[in-house]
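Changelog note: in this version the structure field was regenerated for every chain. One regenerated record is shown below for reference.
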Amino acid sequence: VRRLQARRQLRALAGTSPEAGAASSAALLRQSGVGEGVLNRLAHASPGVETAQRLLRQARIDMAVESFVAISVACALGLAAGVMVATGSLILTTVGAGIGVLLPYMWVARRRTKRTRDFEEQFPEAIELLTRAIRAGHPISSGMRMVGEDASETVAEEFRITFEEQRFGLPFEDALVNLVHRNDLVDVRIFATALLVQRDVGGNLAEILDNLASTIRDRFYIQRQLRVYTAQGRMTGWVLGLLPIVVGSIIWIIEPEYMALLLDGLGGRAILAFAALMQIVGVLWIRRVIAIEI
């Protein structure tokens, strides 16, 4: 009975057919770990599971943590096998395995970054829609429903979730906290704080939201300008980071015996390790110099 009620609530929440509701229920069961196997238990016992869950949730990828771990392991094994067959070097095979593990994480992180940028760009529009709804006499919850229906998709999805959480009985404060957790942005934290403070002490919420939307737009414009001004620094970091790898690969293809002197001897391996460490330090230093917080 409880499972049937949960499925009905999921179908009502998604506004879809019973088949889609069943798919949503299955996704919910996967994320909650119901019926988990050995890989699921191993994945949830590994460090960084909460970080991976938050990353997948913020990227809006419907994937359980154990599936993400399985894909990472498969990429590591596949890339390591390819490098071993191509070079026969244990060191390069280890490096390939490490890169393979990071590839799924980099893809998910890129998806999250793109979605975050879309959300930041659309967020002022959503605040303005909410402001107009409040000035028209609608309550905040009704205004969030209107934003979820009329705003651009990325930000509308978040407001729909917040509205549905309230509709199913979650307190307003907890729904706002969940909104902040799903979108860990300064603008969202300020927005949630403004709503909570106004709810407790009162005030002209429409004017507060107008000022907030204007501030976010100005800050977003400045961020775009900074990206233009720091483009040369970012390109310098990429060039300096990739140039040794490209040159080393070319030398390996043209004259393998030259690179063998570095890979076969202990001194050569130490030199390569030190050079790689310095490259990483240099790239991180350049990124820190051009990273300007607003």
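Spot check on this record: Residues 226-292 form one domain. The radius of gyration is 25 Å.
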